């Protein structure tokens, strides 16, 4: 599947996930930019992330923006080729993995650590 199609399917999956969020979380989710990347950039890999990373949250978690000297805007990066490979080129599995990865990274924005994400089924 080409990158344009991967992006369209991913954006649809993210939109559907946002619409299913509890009403109190939806506005917070819409405040976080989602970027669709083919693969992780060299600077991400230089930080020690694996080349097959599926997604990444960057910036400050919600509610901590003013507690940092350099408040970077929050964003979620989804690595579409890695997600497609992880889904073994199955579009339905890809949609579900995009949804789960998006929700996992959104959880980081909400301040949830890995244990809290696991407890919510977002690991």
SSE order and pairing:
Layout: H1 3-19, H2 26-30, E1 33-37, H3 42-46, E2 55-58, E3 75-79, H4 80-86, H5 91-109, H6 114-119
Parallel strand pairs: 1-3
Antiparallel strand pairs: 2-3
Helix pairs in contact: 1-5, 4-5
Termini, distance in Å?
26 Å
Mean pLDDT: 90
> Any guess at the CATH architecture?
2-Layer Sandwich
What is the number of beta strands?
A: 3
Structure report:
The chain is mainly alpha-helical and 123 residues long. The protein has a single domain, classed as 2-Layer Sandwich (Zincin-like), CATH 3.30.2010.20. The protein has helices at residues 3-19, 26-30, 42-46, 80-86, 91-109, 114-119, and strands spanning 33-37, 55-58, 75-79. Helix 1 crosses helix 5 (91-109) and helix 4 crosses helix 5.
Jot down its keywords.
Zincin-like; three-stranded mixed beta sheet; about 120 residues; mainly alpha; 3 strands; about 10% strand; about 50% helix
């Amino acid at each position: 599947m080409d990158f344009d199609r991967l992006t369209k399917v991913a954006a649809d999956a993210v939109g559907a996930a946002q619409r299913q969020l509890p009403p109190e979380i939806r506005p917070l989710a819409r405040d976080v930019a989602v970027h669709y990347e083919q693969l992780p950039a060299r600077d991400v890999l230089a930080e020690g992330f694996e080349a097959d990373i599926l997604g990444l949250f960057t910036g400050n978690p919600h509610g901590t923006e003013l507690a940092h000297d350099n408040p970077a805007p929050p964003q979620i990066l989804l690595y579409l080729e890695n997600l497609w490979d992880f889904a073994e080129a199955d579009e339905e599995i890809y949609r579900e993995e995009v949804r789960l990865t998006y929700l996992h990274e959104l959880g980081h924005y909400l301040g949830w650590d890995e244990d809290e994400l696991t407890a919510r089924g977002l690991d």
